[in-house]
Fold each of these.
Amino acid sequence: MVDAVLHVPTPVNDPVSSFAPGTPERAALKAELARLSGEVAEIPCVIGGERVHTGRMDVQVMPHRHRHVVAKFHVADADVAQRAVLAAADARREWASMRWEARAAVFLRAAELLATRRRATILAATMLGQSKTAHQAEIDAACELIDFLRFNVHFAQQLYQQQPLSSPGMWNQTDLRPLEGFTFALTPFNFTAIAGNLPTAPAIMGNTVVWKPSESQMLAAWHTMLLLEEAGLPPGVINFVPGYGHELAPVWMDHPDFAALHFTGSTDVFKSLWKRAAANLDRYKSFPRIVGETGGKDFIVAHASADPAAVITAIIRGGYEFQGQKCSAASRVYIARSVWDKIKDELVSEIDGLKVGDVSDFTNFMGGVIKKAAFDRHAAAIAEARETAGMKVLAGGTCDDREGWFVRPTLLTTEDPSVRHMRDEFFGPIVTAHVYPDEVFSETLRLVDQTSAYGLTGAIIANERGAIVEATTALRNAAGNFYINDKPTGAVVGQQPFGGARASGTDDKAGSALNLLRFVAARTIKEVFVSPTDWRYPFLAES
Ligand code: NAD
């Protein structure tokens, strides 16, 4: 032990590697891609640090080469899920009472390992399993996850430092207690960083966790678990439980010790989990914390004063990178007629020129969409657009699932701004544009605000300051992350804390102190140095 007031190292955002030809990081990544492509990982459950092989197997495939299995994993059943709760309870006794600096050191060590010798492996696992390009894997699985780990311990320190005032003769203290019970982390396929953050953020604050990763992100999740183990995370603090959400969630959500849900995924799944928690209130020992970041129907508004090249870049990067499978991806665009007339031909030809294919070939801008169900959903949305009056397919519009689940980046236009394509999340490379007369900007902002149930991200592209000010005000509740003259994706930990309200979630801002606060129950302590010894107040005297 040490007697010292410690400060965690000041975090800085992890630099993004270029992977340009001839760089060492490119050579290391290519080698790791070849290695992981040549083997099939077998992934067990990890309960209290022990490998559990259930024998009930499922597989994860490469979305861009769907006959190629990258991992097979052991599917947990209700019994394994129950054992995970017991392991979390066992581990909690030491973990919750450990000095927070000692806990923090585990995650700082994990960040350093990921930034160095484990980097290429987790990048390759994310590229092959989720079909991300080298750049998309780098900003997610390396940079963002490293940032989550380093910044979250820094934010934890800030929270622990916030202490109340003390009048003379007394000492008041705030003790941020870990929640009583266990946290259930349920993670999505699309970000390795989010999958790593949802179990680790509560653990940093002294909680113990059962983590169910997505079937479609299994390999990178497994390497994240191995990373945490190598960093010295004690057994049982995070229990790794591959399986099916509809089978496992009820086991954990019906448990009296269920203390928190840390979820990222679709709005419908989140609603169903919240309803289950509500129905269970009488059986819980505490009111559980329900934290969820969910879907989006993210927008770009191009004002008549917008730089045309900025609009094209924002649509292509914001709409199509990682096949549009970011919760923040732009999928509805409102463009002033005068701007549209300038950009239409170039935009269509740029989109048609985007290369789609195997992400191991670094010249591809996009890979495959995550699974067959997603591919079918996108194909149906495009087919529906072809049949909808007033809609046109201007670019892309074709799908091919012979080798991988490839959907061409697609640009649709609609005369009617209330069609389903402007309201519903498809979670694929489909952008729908509505062209509005330059002079109806204010009405268009109202439309943007009211068309969709979501409120995650959005962007205004304009040069006129008055238009920027008007949009920032009119769209105040339409997006939790609002961008001015930039694409609405690519939030950086510590710089743009991420999350939205409305149907997009509880807006607890991943990678910020706001999020960590949800996983503690504050205790206030008052100590008086010399206790009062007479109960009578002076005013009670008669004279
Ligand atoms: P999903 O909701 O299908 O799955 C999320 C997790 O829940 C997975 O682990 C899955 O196995 C599990 N699950 C699925 N059905 C379940 C059920 N009935 N009961 C219990 N668990 C169940 O989401 P996804 O396809 O993995 O991710 C895409 C969604 O996530 C999109 O809607 C996207 O917008 C959203 N997302 C939001 C954010 C954000 O920060 N707001 C970030 C990333 C993704």
Amino acid sequence: MSEIETLKQWIDESNNIVFFGGAGVSTESGIPDFRSVDGLYSQKYKYPPETIVSHTFLTKRTDEFFEFYKEKMVAPALKAKPNKAHYKLAEWEKQGKLKAVITQNIDGLHQAAGSKEVLELHGTIMKNYCDRCGKKYDVDHVLASDGVPKCECGGTIRPDVVLYEEGLDMNVMEKAVRYIERADILIIGGTSLVVYPAAGLIQYYRGKKLVLVNLSETSQDQYADLVIHEKIGEVFSKL
Ligand code: OAD
């Protein structure tokens, strides 16, 4: 049996699938990932992107932070449409087969495809709030603002996104752990599994059907029960 046939059989038989993904899930929607050769972190900027998307940069070089954030992270995500991987996950959830999508992505494409239980480990571009009074703003307001988005109270409107040097929401992490601990099949897709603590979630899986669908090799390939090095949208459209 081919890997895809095995995966198809496992999925057909399961009603407790959990998916854990990253930027590679959205590349087929036209959003570049971070670490591939054509990814965001391979492009040349004045500062390394890890520096730009950090808490220090947001507070100390706010203008440059928003210039990069709006142009490279928000605008491409708002233009993008979900792909076959996003739609297939939403379909499995609707059929009662999939319990949750756990994602490191901030682009909102899983919800756009119809997924309901989406745990966004790194937050979302869709939610924004004033760092002084807490007032909430939508993404269109942030994108349409000239330069640094400002609240009516004078504070800066920041995205509800986890930047480097910031901690993850522990409620979201604990929920993700609970789904993974109980999962029958854990499918990990489109993530290099190098950013912690998100990548550490894999350790909580106790089952025997750990599936990795990633274009390139990852350091965790050896622990998986099934490894497929192909585009995730193409793989999922065959299931
Ligand atoms: P990476 O860019 O590190 O990894 C994306 C992985 O997806 C790579 O291993 C690619 O080979 C693979 N890939 C690309 N296109 C694919 C496709 N169509 N099908 C299958 N695989 C594909 O992205 P993440 O692992 O998501 O954090 O990065 C994790 C975190 O690093 C991000 O959430 C972001 C970043 O810094 C923050 O911003 C806090």
